[in-house]
Design a protein that fits this description.
single chain, about 130 residues, mainly alpha, 5 helices, elongated
């Protein structure tokens, strides 16, 4: 959780300059990254297991993103973990911005690339 707490701290401080409610885009960003991680794990499971399952990735993104946003909202806002993270101020922000951007790009790329590999090489739709 330390990595996501650091992401929360970095993005909250970056977002509060331009937003009246800075936690909304922060929670959306974290949920989107976590959704990409789940899709990546599902894709790797399908590739390694060589399963022939029709996987509708757009429905999975929608469902996982909504569920994770609700869970993150509960964790960071309802349980007040977000305020505790912001009060600690022990997160070093010098290189976190770079690593947050790298994490976002890699999570999107790897989720998309593994889905592409699964659809092109492992999924055999209705072959007789």
């Amino acid at each position: 959780m330390y990595f996501f707490n650091s992401i929360y701290y970095y993005l909250y401080n970056k977002s509060k300059r331009g937003n009246a409610v800075p936690e909304i885009p922060v929670l959306g960003f974290i949920s989107f990254c976590q959704t990409n991680n789940i899709i990546l794990i599902i894709n790797l499971f399908l590739i390694i297991g060589n399963f022939d399952i029709v996987f509708e990735v757009h429905y999975a993104y929608l469902i996982f993103n909504i569920l994770l946003y609700i869970l993150n909202y509960y964790y960071y806002q309802t349980k007040k973990k977000g305020k505790k993270i912001l009060q600690q101020k022990k997160h070093i922000l010098k290189k976190h911005g770079f690593w947050v951007d790298v994490y976002l790009i890699l999570s999107i790329f790897l989720a998309g690339y593994t889905f592409y590999i699964y659809r092109e090489y492992f999924w055999k739709p209705f072959l007789d």
